[in-house]
Design goal:
Layout: E1 7-9, E2 14-19, E3 22-27, H1 29-35, E4 38-42, E5 49-50, E6 55-61, E7 65-69, E8 74-79, H2 81-85, H3 89-92, E9 100-104, H4 116-122
Antiparallel strand pairs: 1-2, 2-3, 3-9, 4-6, 5-8, 6-7, 8-9
């Protein structure tokens, strides 16, 4: 699996795709492989402020429950109803299936994230 070059990644296996001051957040292909069949995703309320590195929800598979961590700080603008209603799409298309959109409050936080090559090295 190749990881989209335009995304930034966390060591906790979340990705963020930035466009101006907005970021779509999801879980990586590696994360969904480790989880197995995803059956439920607990998402934050729209309007909630999240901080980089803090848990904003959980993702549950047939094997385990894992925390989801914010790749960057900001306000939750939208949650993906399609993912909430059909969490298995995260397994089928992890890099197309965003979980939430955040209005980024501190663009400098990207310095703490990995690019695609660094993330690929991390998961070797």
């Amino acid at each position: 699996m190749s990881y989209p070059a335009g995304f930034k990644y966390t060591k906790d296996h979340q990705w963020i795709e930035l466009a101006q001051d907005r970021g779509k957040v999801g879980v990586t292909d590696y994360a969904q492989q480790q989880l197995g069949d995803v059956v439920y995703i607990d998402l934050p309320d729209v309007g909630r402020t999240i901080k980089q590195g803090e848990s904003f929800g959980t993702i549950e598979s047939v094997k385990s429950v894992s925390e989801l961590y914010a790749p960057m700080s900001g306000e939750v603008l939208e949650v993906n109803a399609a993912v909430k209603d059909n969490p298995g799409i995260v397994n089928a298309r992890p890099h197309d299936s965003w979980i939430l959109i955040v209005k980024v409050s501190n663009p400098a936080e990207t310095a703490g994230l990995l690019d695609a090559a660094q993330y690929a090295e991390l998961i070797k």
